[in-house]
Write a structure and sequence with these properties.
Layout lengths: L2 H18 L13 E5 L6 H17 L3 E5 L6 H8 L7 E5 L2 H8 L11 E17 L7 H10 L5 E4 L2 H13 L5 E4 L3 H9 L5 E5 H9 L3 E6 L25 E9 L4 H15 L2 H9 L3 E2 L4 H21 L6
Parallel strand pairs: 1-2, 1-3, 5-6, 5-7
Antiparallel strand pairs: 3-9, 4-7, 4-8, 4-9, 4-10
Helix pairs in contact: 2-9
Length: 323
Amino acid sequence: MPAPLQLAAISLSLTFAVLALPGTAHAEFPDKTVRIVVPYSPGGGTDIVARRLAERLTPRLKQTVVVENKPGANGIIGTDAVAKSAPDGHTYVLVVNTHLLNPILYKKMPYDTFNDLIGVTMVAKSPLVFVTQTEFPASNAVDFARYVKAKPDKYSYGSSENMTRLVGAMYNKAQNLDMVNVAYKGGAPLMTDVIGGVTTVGVTSVLTAKPFITAGKLRPLAVTGAQRTPALPNVPTMIESGMKDFEVYTSYSLYAPAKTPKAALERMQKEVHAVVMAPDMKEILAEQAATPVAQSVDEFNAEVKKDFAVWQRLAKEVNLQAE
C-alpha cells in the first residue's frame, strides 16, 4: 500500500478507536427520547419546573423530552430508578434538597447518593412558603404560633418530603410549638389537605402554592427567603417575623447516573442554561419566586458537597429523624 494510503488508513482506524472509547459521547447525542424523572407527585413545584423545562429542551435537543412521575419514599423510589438506569445521557432525575437529606436520615438506601449519581446543574432555586386555609384566624407566622400555643396537641404541619419537613421542624423549634408532622408524597396533595383543613399548615414551594393563594384558597403566612419575593410582595419573611437567621431555599437540581459521559452532562447543562436564561422562562420562574441558576457541571458538584454539610447541621439542630 502506498505511504499516503497507509497514513489515511491509520488515521481512520484511530478515529474509530476514539469513538469506541467508553465514556465518549456519541456525535449524534441524544439519539433517542430523553427522560426526566420527577420522584414526587404530579402538580408540585418540581413537576411544574420539569414540564416547563422538557417542552423547551425538546426542540433544542431535537429529541422528545418526557417527564415521568415516580413518587414515594421521599423521592428515593424515583431517584433509585435513575441511579440504576443506563448511563448513556438519556435519563435524568429532577430533585429538591431532600436528595441530600435522605442519606443523612436513612442508614440503608438502595443507592449511594454520591457514588451512583452525578450532578448536572441546579435548574433554579426558590424560597418556601408557609400556608394555611383562608378560614384560619391567623394572618402571619407570629399570630399562627400564638393560636397553636393556645390549643396545644391540636395542630399539624404538612410536608411533601424531608426538606419541607425539616423547615417545618425549624419553625416548630423557633416558636416552641408541638405541631405533629403529616407527610405527603407531593406538594399537590398537601395543598388539597391544607385547603380542606385536614392539615393545619403546609410548607411548600411558592411554585406549588401560588395558584391556590391567587385563587383565594390558601393564606400565606411567611416566606423563607432573606427578602420578600416579588411573587408575593405582601407576605413577610420569617426573619421579619422575628425568627433570626431563618433563611432557607428549595432548589430544583438535575442528576444523572454516575457513569454518564461528561460530554453528555455538559451538553445537557448547556441546553438547560439556554432554556432557563431565556426571557420567557425567566419570566415564568419569576412569577413563581424562582431564580434560574444553571451553573456548570463542575461548579454544581462542588456546591453539592458544601450544601450537604449545611443540611447535616440543620438536621442535627432540630434532631430530625427518619419517619
